[in-house]
Amino acid sequence: MTTDSELPRFPFCPRGDVLHAQYRELQEHRPITRVLTPAGDQAWLITGHDLAVRAFDDDRLSLVWGAVLDSAEQGAAGPAPNAAASAQAAHKTGPRREFLGAIAPPRVEALRPRARATARTLLDAVADSRQPADLFPTYAQALPLALTCLVLGMPLDEAHGLIDSIETAMPIREDPQVDYGANWTRMHDYFVSFLARPDLPDGAARRSRDTNAARPPDERLDDDVLAEILAWFFGASHVGAVSVLAHSIVSLLDQRTAWDRLCEQGAAPRPAVEELLRHSLFLHNGLPRVATADIELGGVTIRAGDRVLISADTANRDPAAFPDPHRIDLTRNGGAHLAFGRGTYYCPGSALGRMGLQVAVEELTRRFPTMRLAVPPGEIEWRDDLLDRRPVAIPVTW
């Protein structure tokens, strides 16, 4: 039997611009294998694309169980236990339908003109700034945040003040200096007071509140639960979009052939967007599941109760599925990527993510065709303490 001391400790590399050699070795020789999480617990790690697809499609690998156990698995304190219960409550109520309806393709498409106008305003400010400029806070973070606020009906200036709290609530490992409970309480209290405003603007937040109020009294969610659902939605819709856009900018500025082609086209067609999603190494922590029954997969037996981590990043760089996987090929038929998951738990925000990335890349390449990274790619610092990995800064010149 393999002992803990013999197992590799996952994740393997803090950088987001290269796939560590250990991932490639496992993918080739042991596409499903046991690893240690940051907390020192054992989990099955899946790195092969075919096995990842099969795992996503198997409902015996439960996201709900994984969400409850995720904090202990990854070694981070995370939000308060009642927050996980609130997230599960959202799956059974009317407010959830309002949130999902707000990011359904028709409503997302209606937001495109406002998204484009926002991107241009942000890039105007970048053009007026001193060089080198940091494109992370001014664009890669600012544009997704603005889109999240449009969907929810939240004031942008107030949302800026929540960024640190949201990131603190989504760590990969616990910082002993951080009071995670107090951090979650601050967010919770903000959203309770926000939902209580009589003049709440139109958006998913107000519609979910009104839908909840219209339900029979014994079926309504209380204010605390509704606030926690809103906090989860705010964090989930913002953090991933920021990471994907930041990764795409860094990768495109590194791989100049792809950048120049987008500049020449003056657009980012659907295949280009899918390729950028496939190429982004932002899900470095693996997508957690827990087996609800014994499962045979890839020649191993996953026992009921075992933790499973699906490394979508690594699967998206599997040469068996995507030839020359580390190169951005804007004409690739990359629709089989797993950046949004797959199957029952396919990311409900995929339409918003695609639209935001498309608009962001189109406007950036049109406005700054001569943009360059101000430092070699290897000198960019990456945050590896968050569930979604991203650069600390994107220094650029033009």
From TrEMBL:
Pfam families: p450. This is Cytochrome P450. Belongs to the cytochrome P450 family. InterPro entries: Cyt_P450, Cyt_P450_B, Cyt_P450_sf.
